[in-house]
Amino acid sequence: MERTCQDHFKRRCWGIGSGFGFRVVALDPNFSKFSIATIVSAYEKDKHKAILLDYDGTLMTQTSIDKTPSEQVISMLNTLCADKNNSAFIVSGRGMESLG
After folding, report:
1. pLDDT < 50: residue spans in the chain
2. What residue range is the signal peptide (predicted)?
């Protein structure tokens, strides 16, 4: 925490979300977003891939009452898992009982 506060004036900050979900994200000035082309190129080059997907907010909208994955999400996960070189993981703060 001290180290982060010391470097605060050097970081770029963004506010994300609203209400109780509001967060401030501080990134190093050298941080850059990967382009889709860079991601695709790295994916095609690497033999073994670990793919981590966040459940709420990535696979499912956070505002959704029904948290059951859509057929499109299931299809995408099946496609990822069909490749023996992929290891796909779904990350969630929810308990197993709420995920079904």
Report:
1. none
2. none
